[in-house]
Structures are given as structure tokens and as C-alpha cells.
Amino acid sequence: MNISGRGKYKVWLQRHDIGDDIVFFLGGGQRSHIGGVVISEPGKKIKAIRLTGHYDDVVLQPIAEAACKKYKKKVVAIGGVHVDNATKEEITLLVENCKKLVKKV
Fold this sequence. Notes:
With about 100 residues, the chain is an alpha+beta fold. It has a 6-stranded mixed beta sheet. Helix content is about 30%, strand content about 35%. The chain has helices at about 55-70, 90-100; strands spanning about 1-5, 10-20, 20-30, 35-40, 45-50, 75-80. The chain is built from 2 helices and 6 strands, in the order E-E-E-E-E-H-E-H. It starts with a strand and ends with a helix. The chain has one domain (about 1-100): Ribosomal Protein S5, domain 2 (2-Layer Sandwich), CATH 3.30.230.100. The longest helix has 15 residues, at about 55-70.
């Protein structure tokens, strides 16, 4: 498992190989959840599902795209991070921590 950030801004990324494909689970903040799902297949347009009231697909998409490009496999990225009543600055910090995880796929 890869981790970025500290305290309530800590996010984590876990990889699971499913046959020839890869699934990444993203979580963190004060409460992990499923806020989005992103599917990336080599040579195809990315597919993103945003669950109502969530924007986690924004941080899941770079993870799925980077892993698909690197490994040339189908990749699904699923999950979400949450901090209660997050300010704009706190959201920015969480997004930056998630971006650091992209480099670790």
C-alpha cells in the first residue's frame, strides 16, 4: 500500500491484480468511501462514473490513466477520500496528496 500525507489528509492507494487486469483502491481522509469509479483500457476512451455528490473521479482518473499507460492493461480505479466540512485549502491538500500517489502506480 502506498501512502501520501499525514493526519486527516493522509490518502492511500492499494493495488490488486485481477488476472491480467489491475484494480486500484483509493481511500483516506477522515472516512474512505466509494465516490467514483474510473476504467481505463489501452487505446480506448476513459470511462468515469461520478456518484451523486462526490468528485472523487477527478483524483481517480489520473491513477487509472497512468497505470494503463505504464502497464498496457485494463485498469479500474475506485474509491474516495473525505474530510468533514473541508475548506477549499483542505480539498487542495487532499488532491495534491492524491497526485503524489499517481507517481507510485
